[in-house]
Amino acid sequence: MSTENESTEEVVLTFPRANIVAVEAVSGVLESTLGPLSRDTLIGTGQSRAQKQDSARPDMNEYTISSDGATILEELPIEHPMGPVIRRLAGSERPGETAVVGEAIPDGVASTVVLLGALLREAEALLELGVHPTTVEEGYQAGLECARRTLRSVARPVESFADPTATKEAVARSAMTGNDVGNARETWAKLAVEAAERVGMPDAETLAVRQLRSGSIADSRLVRGTVLDRNEICSDLMPTRKEDASVLVLTGFKRGKANDGKTGGLQDPDIQRDDERIRIDSPDDVEAFDDVFVRRREEVVAGLVDAGVDVVVTRVGISDEYQELLAERGIIGVRGVNRLKLTQLARATGATPVVDPTDVTASDLGHAGLVEQRTIDRRKGRRKRRRMVVFDECDDPESVTFLLRGVHGQVAEQATTELRKATAAVAVANGETIAPPGVLPGGGATELEVATAIRERALAEHDRRQLALYAFADATDRFVSTLARNAGMNPMQTVANLREATEHAEDDAQQGLILPEKTIGDPYAFGVLDPVATRLECYVSAVEVAIRILRVDDTLDATFSKEPTKPGDAIYDEHAEKHQDYLEEKDDTIWHQ
């Protein structure tokens, strides 16, 4: 028997297939995070801080564990040139550490990337059949318009439901698709609805999240105001609790800045000026000079008392002399509050930030029903006690605070992300943004409606754009099959069962996957709802990025170095070989000269 040697040929990825493969790899990572039965993804983010400081320690990595699509997309080490294009789907805000201090958290990122991957897989098959990328683009644009019309026709306003509050809570629960931290999803959904009703679309100033190790997750609550968790009352002589308090928010200047002799907070003015000098000829002049500051302090504090100030919160310092005067009059002082927290406090209490402490009126003051200092995170063997000052029960606050208890580390970050996403989802459904308000049925019901509408639209085409429209519909079906796969169901059989249930549904009710029960039913009846704006943004972003990737025809290395580029160091081997040929030809020319 004779054997033939099989020759292996190196597979060279050409455009745009090379970029499609890169996007498909990222999409594959996020597929498992889709749906209420999603799984976490563990990403190694690099060397630990201890390892960097001590090179003798063994290698170890810091890890991020999350089921949030935006977090995974941000932490995922993507070296391919398409990486920045895909990461833009998460928006301009970083969902990592900034989530703790209140940055906006984008929603629907995993859904967008999964749909993007499906669109590109279908496009790749069309390209192999000889369909031009421009034709695919035209078909996808037509499919997107059809999807827009379908979403608007299926959507329902929140007010059309018998219990709008319950509907909003269902939207909040659907937005918290990650692991149910502490089985608190039901409670947190109620808090998210309350927060959205009070502040609308949350941002860094209107919604804060404070995290505490102490207590249990069940003790978490929404504070109708703000929490200064890294600040405390500046003197032990001051009261630690005050009800029905008038609050003064005092901004100012830091020392060392050009401020015309003024000093931020409640401190003596800085009289050191480059163009002025004070001449003292006798000890009496020193005493008289001190008397000026004494009288000024008394006048400032007397002015605060006349204005009705109960609590003064400053951007910078409160000197010992001012602390003593404030304590004598029963006024609480809190100093060293950063700009963001100071803004949150002003919006929560309705106070007008004041720069000059000598110019305070009653109209500048805000109000809090309760101001109280609390000792938190008590731990055995810990010398320094951690305190926080709570401003609660504010009248019509424009800023509120989630006070999360019993969480820390990555659990705290994940809980923070889920809460902010839930609040934003409710606000979007309420119509707090320029996007269309209302809700859509979840569980794949909307996707089936879109896919059916696009297939009907494809029948009106008589050229190759019809193939692109069918590809768009198939990509939408892939989204539903991924949802079923993550739930442990047979993807193809589940999609078929959904279509059959939709055809035989009474009163044309939509049918979707009800998870975790793994049944098929009316998502509206089971409270599986998504905001219209979030789903619409998913389709728009996925199609726009897919078209952008299909338009890329080639890549050029515009930076030529003296050192030859090895094939393994380049993005594509073909361009590395061209670069090498260029350098060799250049060397030969120089040698012959």
Helix/strand-derived category reads alpha+beta
Approximately how much helix is present in the residues? 40-55%
- Given as residue ranges, the uncertain stretches (5+ residues, pLDDT < 50) are 1-13, 48-52, 92-103, 255-261
* Mean pLDDT across every amino acid position: 81
- Name the beta content range: 5-15%
Give the terminus-to-terminus CA distance.
Answer: 59 Å
Number of helices: 19
Write the layout of secondary structure elements.
Blueprint: H1 17-31, E1 41-47, H2 49-53, E2 61-66, H3 69-75, H4 83-87, H5 98-101, H6 109-128, H7 133-154, H8 164-175, H9 185-199, E3 207-212, E4 221-223, E5 226-228, E6 241-250, H10 283-307, E7 311-314, H11 320-328, E8 332-334, H12 339-349, E9 366-376, E10 386-392, E11 400-405, H13 409-430, E12 439-441, H14 445-458, H15 465-486, H16 491-503, E13 512-514, E14 519-521, H17 523-526, E15 529-531, H18 532-551, H19 573-592
Parallel strand pairs: 3-11, 6-7, 7-8
Antiparallel strand pairs: 1-2, 4-11, 5-10, 6-9, 9-10, 12-15, 13-14
Helix pairs in contact: 1-6, 6-15, 6-18, 7-14, 7-15, 7-18, 8-9, 8-13, 9-13, 14-15, 15-16
Task: Describe the protein in words.
- With 593 residues, this protein is of the alpha+beta class.
- 45% of the residues lie in helices and 13% in strands.
- It has 19 helices and 15 strands.
- The protein has helices spanning 17-31, 49-53, 69-75, 83-87, 98-101, 109-128, 133-154, 164-175, 185-199, 283-307, 320-328, 339-349, 409-430, 445-458, 465-486, 491-503, 523-526, 532-551, 573-592, and strands at 41-47, 61-66, 207-212, 221-223, 226-228, 241-250, 311-314, 332-334, 366-376, 386-392, 400-405, 439-441, 512-514, 519-521, 529-531.
- The strands form five sheets. A six-stranded mixed beta sheet has the order 5-10-9-6-7-8. A three-stranded mixed beta sheet has the order 3-11-4, with helices on one face. It has a two-stranded antiparallel sheet with strand order 1-2.
- Strand 7 (311-314), helix 11 (320-328) and strand 8 (332-334) form a beta-alpha-beta unit.
- The longest helix is centred in the middle third of the chain and has 25 residues, at 283-307.
- It starts with 16 loop residues before the first helix and ends with a helix.
